[in-house]
């Protein structure tokens, strides 16, 4: 026997093999069997071929990944692994072998519905899937927004609108050392916030061989356990560091008889690489894409003739924008860290693996059974001018080149606790915009309420719904001239000022606050002072979430309401009018009636059903993100929850939004959703005698 697949009561795969290579093949095999449709969609998205069967809605994405050269970068990174780390390259090949075995003859119903057959994975495909999943993770399109806002509203707008928004991914994470636990051993807990997908973006799995035995959350289509894992003696987790490591350059391009040239910072025109690719679109004519790359990077917007429909600013050349990102520059994606993580026995091993990390840039929390603790940034951030970090910079001017790499910062603990929730922390020198501090402060305050914690108690922190960011709007309500309000508005004002500020699904007051907030957002967006920013530049559709004014106001509302001045807008009048509007037509039910889960699916479900109502909100620890002014639906939220107990790994807990299986109709497709909704967690099973063997492989 070289390997075997076991399952626990939740259908979670536990894999056991004789060696690391065979285990990788087994992981690829079970991932393809459980998540075949999901990982094939991701392969197509990484290659820019998803529109060929999902339709024109995916065209803008496919064009971006073609122009950004995601697949070619993945090939480069794998080629470098073959030279510098052949063991890891061989391990990835084994995983891909398993994926292809599992996809052979796959009968997931989605393939038939989409009219497509499973394809073949190449050794570099997992790297392309990783790159594709994180291309927009650091939010480089925010630089397009800052450019637009500064040009239309003035330089002060950049700071006023600075906040994390609907396009970024975040997480909660906290570490409690043994001095603060009932067992005397550390606990690491948290929840990654991503767009909720069905099937889910994280796969619960166990990987066991003579060299290691690890439970954790894997990314389907990628070998190993990169982000959240427990080896028995050491556990680790990550949050988004909110670092800025991708640059956008304005380019001056010209066509010549030989091709395309780009003007460099030394005043010399140099030949740019150029070729064309064809993107197939289901039901429509194919689209030809010109792929151009200068010395800065691939052109992702515009070209020598500019952008269709955009008139260049006076004195500006036609718009062309290049993207510079570390793996394209270095040929290193950081996959050399994956095997060392699986082999880790103590914090020092995780620390060493983190030194090999590249992208995305994360804050790592880790603890081991010897009392070790780790709180550091991992990833590659270039050293360059401050202007690069904020907006588009001119490629033809000197001073915007990359000059090496930042040393990843480290941080300590405070009274045996470390908390990261995308706020300004150890990564502050590496970023521009961070999450408001509300989640981090709330987690720290909750942990301070008792001196010793157990793993079982951590679920109460995961599900906290206090909304600190409500304060500026409620302050405006409190300052209103109450006698001037109508009776219904006065009553609504009194209700909201007495509200406990918890965004619970069953709370009518939370629903009323959300309705008022949205009304304020829409009214601010309609103010003439902001009209100049209301029409986004005609960039590709894939960038629109970062450029729409209403969501930008919604996610920056507390800053806009608390600022000394907001372009002369009479904010008390706006709040008063919004209060009267909501009082005249209040929400009919509680928050959970409209704040419902809205998961992304590549294909609409054959059995559509009403998705469940949710507690929480964007700035709650229970981060289920509505988009104020647009929708109460939550497309983003906790993509998993975990509690790693270093005293006894079997006392650890975890849960995902749906289930372990990606196959509709499977008993494990949605069986964890009741736990996820209730804030409960499933046990992590480690006793092989409690598992059911599915097959020898």
UniProtKB/TrEMBL annotation:
Record-linked SUPFAM superfamilies: N-terminal nucleophile aminohydrolases (Ntn hydrolases)
Entry keywords, A to Z: Hydrolase, Zymogen
Protein name per its UniProtKB record: Penicillin acylase family protein
Keyword Transmembrane: no
Pfam families: Penicil_amidase (PF01804)
InterPro entries attached to this UniProt entry: Ntn_hydrolases_N, Pen/GL7ACA/AHL_acylase, Penicillin_amidase_A-knob, Penicillin_amidase_dom1, Penicillin_amidase_N_B-knob, S45
MF (Gene Ontology): hydrolase activity
EC number: 3.5.1.-
Hydrolase among keywords: yes
Enzyme class: hydrolase
Family of this protein: Belongs to the peptidase S45 family.
């Amino acid at each position: 026997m070289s390997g075997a697949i076991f399952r626990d009561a939740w259908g979670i795969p536990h894999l056991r093999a004789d060696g690391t290579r065979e285990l990788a093949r087994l992981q690829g095999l079970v991932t393809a069997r459980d998540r075949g449709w999901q990982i094939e969609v991701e392969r197509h998205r990484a290659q820019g071929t998803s529109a060929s069967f999902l339709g024109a809605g995916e065209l803008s994405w496919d064009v971006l990944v073609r122009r950004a050269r995601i697949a070619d970068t993945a090939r480069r990174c794998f080629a470098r692994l073959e030279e510098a780390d052949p063991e890891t390259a061989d391990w990835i090949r084994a995983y891909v072998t398993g994926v292809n075995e599992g996809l052979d003859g796959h009968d997931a119903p989605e393939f038939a519905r989409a009219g497509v057959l499973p394809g073949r994975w190449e050794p570099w495909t997992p790297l392309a899937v990783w790159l594709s999943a994180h291309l927009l993770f650091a939010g480089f399109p925010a630089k397009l927004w800052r450019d637009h806002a500064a040009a239309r509203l003035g330089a002060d707008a950049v700071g006023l609108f600075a906040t994390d928004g609907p396009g970024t991914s975040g997480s909660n994470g906290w570490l409690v050392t043994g001095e603060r636990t009932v067992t005397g051993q550390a606990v690491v807990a948290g929840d990654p916030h991503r767009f909720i997908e069905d099937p889910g973006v994280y796969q619960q799995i166990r990987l066991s061989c003579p060299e290691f035995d690890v439970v954790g959350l894997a990314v389907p289509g990628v070998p190993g356990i990169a982000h959240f894992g427990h080896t028995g003696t050491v556990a680790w987790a990550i949050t988004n560091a909110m670092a800025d490591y991708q640059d956008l350059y304005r380019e001056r391009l010209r066509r010549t008889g030989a091709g395309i040239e780009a003007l460099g910072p030394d005043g010399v025109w140099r030949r740019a690489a150029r070729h064309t690719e064809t993107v197939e679109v289901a039901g429509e004519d194919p689209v030809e894409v010109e792929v151009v790359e200068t010395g800065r990077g691939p052109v992702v917007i515009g070209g020598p003739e500019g952008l269709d429909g955009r008139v260049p600013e006076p004195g500006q050349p036609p718009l062309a924008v290049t993207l510079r990102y570390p793996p394209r520059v270095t040929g290193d994606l950081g996959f050399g860290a994956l095997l060392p993580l699986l082999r880790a026995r103590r914090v020092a091993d995780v620390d060493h693996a983190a030194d090999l990390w590249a992208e995305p840039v994360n804050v790592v929390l880790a603890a081991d059974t010897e009392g070790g603790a780790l709180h550091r940034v991992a990833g590659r951030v270039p050293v360059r001018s401050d202007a690069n970090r904020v907006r588009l910079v001119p490629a033809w001017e000197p001073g915007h080149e990359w000059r090496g790499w930042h040393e990843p910062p480290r941080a300590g603990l405070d009274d045996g606790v470390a908390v990261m929730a995308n706020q300004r922390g150890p990564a502050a020198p590496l970023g521009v915009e961070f999450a408001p501090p509300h989640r981090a402060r709330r987690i720290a305050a909750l942990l301070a309420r008792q001196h010793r914690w157990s793993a079982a108690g951590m679920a109460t922190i995961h599900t906290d719904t206090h909304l600190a960011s409500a304060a500026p709007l409620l302050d405006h309500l409190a300052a209103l001239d109450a006698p001037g309000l109508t009776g219904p508005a006065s009553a609504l004002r009194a209700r909201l000022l007495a509200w406990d500020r918890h965004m619970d699904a069953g709370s009518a007051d939370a629903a009323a606050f959300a309705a008022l907030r949205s009304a304020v957002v829409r009214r601010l967006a309609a103010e003439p002072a902001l009209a100049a920013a209301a029409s986004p530049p005609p960039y590709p559709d894939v960038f629109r979430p970062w450029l729409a004014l209403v969501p930008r106001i919604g996610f920056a509302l507390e800053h806009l309401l608390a600022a000394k001045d907001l372009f002369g807008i009479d904010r008390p009048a706006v709040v008063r009018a919004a209060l009267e509007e909501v009082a005249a037509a209040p929400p009919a039910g509680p928050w959970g009636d409209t704040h419902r889960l809205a998961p992304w699916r590549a294909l609409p479900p054959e059995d559509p059903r009403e998705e469940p109502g949710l507690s929480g909100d964007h700035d709650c620890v229970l981060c289920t993100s509505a988009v104020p002014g647009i929708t109460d639906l939550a497309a983003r939220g906790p993509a998993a929850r975990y509690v790693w107990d270093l005293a006894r790994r079997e006392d650890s807990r975890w849960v995902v939004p749906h289930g372990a299986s990606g196959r509709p109709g499977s008993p494990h497709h949605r069986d964890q959703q009741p736990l996820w909704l209730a804030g409960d967690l499933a046990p992590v099973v480690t006793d092989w005698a409690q598992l059911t063997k599915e097959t020898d492989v």
